[in-house]
Design brief:
The chain is α/β, with parallel strands linked by helices and 442 residues long. Helix 4 packs antiparallel against helix 5. It starts with a helix and ends in a 9-residue tail after the last strand.
Amino acid sequence: MDRRTVEAAQEDAKDTPRSSPLNVLVFPCGSEVGLELYRSLRWATEVTLFGGSSASSDHGKYVYERYIGGLPFIDDPQFVEALRALVVRHRIDLIFPAMDCVATRLAEVVEQLPCRIVTSPVETCRICGSKQATYRRLAGVVRTPELFSGPEASSSWPVFLKPDCGYGSRGVAIARTPEEVAFHLKQNPSLLVLEYLPGPEYTVDCFTDRHGRLRFTGARERVRIRSGISVHSRTVSSPEFTLMAEKINSALRFRGVWFFQVKRNKDGDLTLMEVASRMAGTMALYRTLGVNFAVLSILDAIDMDVEVICDWRNAEIDRALESRFNLGLVYEHVYIDLEDCLICEGQVNTDVVAYLFQCINRGVRLHLITRLGQDVANRLRCFRLDNLWDEVHSVPEHARKSDVIRERNAIYITGSHADRVEVRKSTGLPTFTTDAVEALWN
């Protein structure tokens, strides 16, 4: 595709009225940011969502229904051409970068792509990609950490060392003596030697529209951090965060979602750590309060005016490792027990019900097995489960449950170890107890 063709496609994307959802590619899609973008956009009526990745092993393929792997890495000479071919093939309208370096690279090559990039201008991306450049630009605008020239320069200990370009607390260290500073600089001479900030740490989530107006600021304390990710965070409210956001927004040109991180120094003053022109994974906290940064940024990227509504309250988020499985199973029928499986201790097992609806979406037939006899219809109505089933099988008290399982391309789910053993031995089918249903989720 030559430059004139790219420009024509970009103009078509700008001028064509939208009567169908926008095709949006998240890249890379398997990072924590990519996964939060999935959660933000999966059910958005404005979007048909695609995920892209260069990594050989990527969690995105377990999550994104439209997953595209095998893209070259951004520093590969073939990257732009491969990405352009993908955009044309899948009619991608917008690419939403999920890493700082990817945002910068895409902003640099946007004129070569027949789509838009959901990010800030390239100069802003470049500045935010370097902490030293960020501090230079914002010196005198907001409080930035003191930067020392070498091991002997600091008059106050400890000091903090971190890479100029990086994220997720990679390569950071605390040094308490000049000798420790020299040791770390020997390992990585590009480390910045900075004032140590001992106070609480905060992230301030922001949205700026295409006119440069700061439309939303939401601060949250980073209570517990693992590998640079805020896994326990809570909302905080103070004018000092908004004032700092306004000052940064006046000094850098943002468009769409961005955030900055601060800590309090030894005197209790907020001091800038970094600025990023992208989504943050823990923006999920404000998303649940009504501020979907991803949707707002996409609508702004296609030149729509948006309203930002936040149902603000004191709220917290706590995150843990989430699992996805690939068991390699292909089946067209699910046999599942009612008692002690679908209904446990007088309550519906909502995890199992979610899985059953996934089966319905895929056209898998559902077979209920129960020993209730004639009471089963009332029992199902009582729990509002009466319309799920393709077949209901009543099994007498002393009969084997395997006797009603006729399909071969099937699996069996039960809460009973004994029933699982019996069905497995009698039919040879894959069998699962209730705790393993999570491995069957899409």
